[in-house]
Amino acid sequence: MNEILRMEHICFSYEKNHPVLNDISLKITEGEKIALLGNNGAGKSTFFLCCNGILKPDSGCIYLKGKKLTQNRKDTFSLHENAGLIFQDSDHQIIGGTVETEISFGPMNLKLPPYEVKERTEKAIAEMHLENFRNRAPQYLSGGEKKRVGIAGILAMKPKLLLLDEPSSCLDSANAKLLEENLEKFALLGFPLIISTHDVDFAWKWAKRILIFHQGRLVADDSPEKVFARKSLLHTCGLTQPLLYQTGELLGLNPLPKTIEELSLHISSSPA
């Protein structure tokens, strides 16, 4: 798979001698489904802001599609354009007077011709099922609807990577299910996805790769099966094994179930 983003020895501090990110190195390739875990203060949101170019690392190197980036304005804008960041609080992202103008804001900033801005906006509206909301003021939408608007605004910029910070927070079950369906669709289209979450059950079910941050360091980077087997590390990082992982282990199942449906199938097919 083609490399999209690579970070080598990234460090960042808000205050001198108090590193928030400490020697972070990793590579993101096309089509990856990555869950980023860690307690509050572990550095997850700061990591996303560095990936997107909002924050500039104190040291280390960032590569975008194989090109080593500098901290000049052109390269920073390239990160903004290619690493789409959806904030946990959608209100921090929404500035447009209507849903349509909000979604068109990103493509307009890319200085695209009007016909392409329109084309991208319409496609993003359709992808996120927002046709009936285009003339509504986004500030008055529900939490789930605002999240869809935020994602549509990022999609309209055609990024190479999607970063989602706690995307399911404040969503009801219907909107959370719709979000999962959209994430699956984006992954099938080849988007690498990194989702910051506290939900280990979601991470176990959805992700193919798990990252764990602890006190500003990347302490785990592996498959869900291998990461969630490390009980001591999980305890140190304030995390638990997913419920279905624990249930599968207790029942001696192999492979371990990722969903309730898989667990039911295992049980129903077991000899009496």
Strand content: 15-25%
Mean pLDDT: 92
- Number of helices, where a helix is a run of at least 4 consecutive DSSP H or I residues: 11
Number of strands: 10
From the coordinates shown, what is the CATH architecture?
3-Layer(aba) Sandwich
CATH level-1 class: Alpha Beta
User: Which geometry do the CA atoms define?
Assistant: globular
Give the strand line-up of the largest sheet.
6-7-8-3-9-10
Portion of residues within helices = 25-40%
Q: What distance lies between the first and last C-alpha atoms, to the nearest angstrom?
A: 44 Å
Can you offer a commentary on this structure?
With 272 residues, the chain is α/β, with parallel strands linked by helices. 40% of the residues lie in helices and 23% in strands. It has helices at residues 44-52, 73-82, 99-109, 114-127, 143-155, 173-188, 200-206, 224-227, 231-236, 243-250, 260-269, and strands at 3-15, 18-29, 33-37, 59-64, 67-68, 83-86, 161-165, 193-196, 209-214, 217-222. A six-stranded mixed beta sheet has the order 6-7-8-3-9-10, sandwiched between helices. It has a four-stranded antiparallel beta sheet with strand order 2-1-4-5, covered by helices on one side. The chain is globular, with a radius of gyration of 20 Å. Helix 4 (114-127) crosses helix 5. It has one domain (3-227): Rossmann fold (3-Layer(aba) Sandwich).
